[in-house]
Design brief:
The chain is α+β, with helices and mostly antiparallel strands. The chain contains 16 helices and twelve strands. The radius of gyration is 29 Å and the shape is elongated.
Length: 471
């Protein structure tokens, strides 16, 4: 029977040069050791599987004896069918077949190359833990368990993708995370697996898109690349989704105030951390609201501008051939193009090009009369302040444009209508059933020690949002 299964495996995995079939002669017949050459630790397979099988031919009458007395491997278990055997082989395990027995076994022998633990470039810190996740599932789980040594830490695994068979895990602390939230995330994972037509799921973003609110530029589902950040989030009652092969871990729910929080807030002096947080809130206000109010004032309500400054504005605008609204829009788009180019270009030249490009663009546009000096300054300040909020810069940019358009039609009344629309949009968003603006709008606002400013570390409640925002 096993000969037929071996033929089925060879047929399914034909035209793959890295599939190794090792034959071993014993007293009762042949033994086949099958593995993928790039995914296993070859020295482990040779020393703890192949060598013991060759040296003990007389006790290979049953798979139980082989598993208990011959093969030296931490994990060795039965293989139920051919499909399961193929999954084990392609996952980096070694399958052992006996042509004289009906049963077969597999041994865990994963040994593929992996990226070392490094500092994530997306979450750099001045002070605090610097280790980040990599693309290896077991390494990421181990990094988290080093920080949360508790039996209440639960890690439930799923296999998603009909073709990719990707290992996915949801992580939470029992008693901290609401049961409704855990069930909500599990349902989302199952829905993605059913909806996916290709059969291939590779990253956590598949589940992030399913969980996040639609029709918004603001992220309503969080992500992190650092074990210490993940540990603190699930300690607050959140649920995380970890996907094998992806260094980014999705966390839910995610609130708007988290866009203004960084790891340094909790590792630096509290006063310095709060100062940085105030600067980020100020940057959000400037980046989002400054261009719109500038346009409304100089277009419709110039009497509110001091006379001396108004003459300077008129001088600056004297040679510009387009209306101020058009000037603001295309200058904002130019700055975003430069920013995108700086991100996509290789690291050594990207930042340099961004700085030089911005200087050349600003100087050239003013000299050629395409834009005025004041408009370049306003757009530059708005763009630079948005750099302090990398997680919501796309939402800031889009609503910046919306406020500019509203202000161009109706002046300050239109501008305030746009501001009201923005606040209504944020208030209407949810994250896995929880209000996106939490703790705003709840009784815990004044008692929450980590809202707009950080309180003492010992006073920050670990699961304060659960009671207040539960469905």
């Amino acid at each position: 029977m096993n000969k037929i299964q071996i033929e089925d495996i060879q047929k399914s995995l034909e035209n793959n040069f890295d599939i190794i079939y090792r034959e071993i002669e014993c007293t009762n017949g042949k033994i086949y050791v099958i593995y993928v050459e790039g995914l296993v630790d070859k020295s482990f397979v040779s020393e703890y599987i192949v060598t013991p099988l060759i040296r003990n031919p007389s006790i290979l009458q049953s798979k139980d004896k082989v598993r208990q007395r011959v093969i030296v491997s931490c994990t060795a278990d039965d293989v139920e069918n051919t499909d399961e055997a193929i999954i084990h082989i392609l996952s980096g395990n070694t399958v052992v077949y006996f042509d004289y027995l009906k049963e077969s076994i597999y041994c865990e022998t994963k040994g593929f190359s992996r990226r070392s633990i490094e500092t994530p470039i997306t979450e750099a810190v001045i002070k605090g833990p610097r280790a980040g996740f990599n693309e290896t599932f077991q390494d990421n789980i181990a990094s988290l368990r080093r920080r949360i040594i508790s039996p209440k830490l639960k890690i439930e695994t799923f296999t998603v993708g009909r073709e990719s068979h990707t290992t996915t895990a949801i992580i939470y602390i029992e008693g901290k995370a609401p049961v409704e939230l855990i069930d909500f995330v599990k349902k989302a994972i199952k829905d993605v697996d059913k909806k996916d037509k290709s059969g291939f799921i590779f990253t956590a973003n598949y589940f992030e898109e399913e969980l996040k609110s639609k029709n918004t530029f603001f992220d309503t589902i969080g992500y992190t690349e650092k074990p210490d950040v993940l540990a603190s989030k699930i300690a607050e009652g959140r649920v995380a989704i970890l996907v094998d092969g992806d260094p980014f871990v999705v966390t839910a729910p995610y609130f708007f105030i988290e866009n203004f929080q960084t790891s340094d807030d909790y590792n630096l002096n509290k006063m310095m951390g709060n100062m940085g947080r105030v600067l980020r809130w100020l940057a959000f206000i400037i980046a989002t609201f400054m261009p719109g109010i500038y346009l409304a004032l100089i277009t419709y309500h110039f009497r509110l501008v001091p006379t001396i400054y108004l003459f300077k504005l008129a001088t600056f605008r004297a040679g510009v051939p387009v209306p101020t609204v058009v000037e603001l829009i295309y200058m904002s788009i130019f700055f975003q193009i430069i920013r995108e180019a700086g991100i996509r270009l290789p690291q050594p030249i990207g930042p340099t090009l961004s700085i030089v490009g911005a200087l050349i663009l600003g100087e050239a546009t003013v000299a050629s009369g395409i834009a005025s000096q004041i408009t370049v300054v306003v757009v530059a300040i708005s763009s630079i302040t948005s750099y302090l909020l990398p997680k919501i810069y796309s939402g800031v940019f889009v609503w910046n444009m919306v406020l500019i358009i509203f202000a161009s039609f109706l002046g300050l009344p239109g501008y305030f209508m746009g501001c009201t629309l923005l606040l209504a949009h944020l208030a209407g968003l949810t994250s896995c059933g929880y209000p996106y603006l939490y703790p705003v709008g709840t009784r815990k606002l004044l008692k929450y020690d980590d809202a707009f400013l950080r309180g003492d570390l010992t006073k920050i409640s670990s699961s304060i949002f659960v009671e207040e925002t539960q469905k």
